Amino acid sequence: MTTIATAPEQLIAESRTRIDAIDDRIIGLIQERMAVSTVIQDARIASGGRRVHLSREMEVLSHWSDALGKPGTALAMTLLELCRGRV
Ligand SMILES: C=C(O[C@@H]1C=C(C(=O)O)C=C[C@H]1O)C(=O)O
């Protein structure tokens, strides 16, 4: 059996194409998360509450840090800022 190795340049180019596609999906999911978060925030504000709910944000931060460690916390903080603005 003959095995033809992929040239490093080709492997890198193809892998970068995959990364760009993954990034597009992540961006789409973030936009979807922002829309869902806005629905919750608007409903809470319309019923006399506040935009921000700190105990829920702590749950979100724990979820991300449990999965990804300290950088997961940083990622979650950025996500929260995208979803509810700066506090
Ligand atoms: C979406 C909510 O409102 C705000 C936005 C959050 C989020 O985007 O995860 C979390 C808590 C709130 O500050 C919520 O309370 O669940």
UniProtKB/TrEMBL annotation:
<dbReference type="InterPro" id="IPR002701">
    <property type="entry name" value="CM_II_prokaryot"/>
</dbReference>
<keyword id="KW-0413">Isomerase</keyword>
<protein>
    <submittedName>
        <fullName>Chorismate mutase</fullName>
        <ecNumber>5.4.99.5</ecNumber>
    </submittedName>
</protein>
<dbReference type="InterPro" id="IPR036263">
    <property type="entry name" value="Chorismate_II_sf"/>
</dbReference>
<dbReference type="GO" id="GO:0004106">
    <property type="term" value="F:chorismate mutase activity"/>
</dbReference>
<feature type="domain" description="Chorismate mutase">
    <location>
        <begin position="6"/>
        <end position="87"/>
    </location>
</feature>
<dbReference type="Pfam" id="PF01817">
    <property type="entry name" value="CM_2"/>
</dbReference>
<dbReference type="InterPro" id="IPR036979">
    <property type="entry name" value="CM_dom_sf"/>
</dbReference>
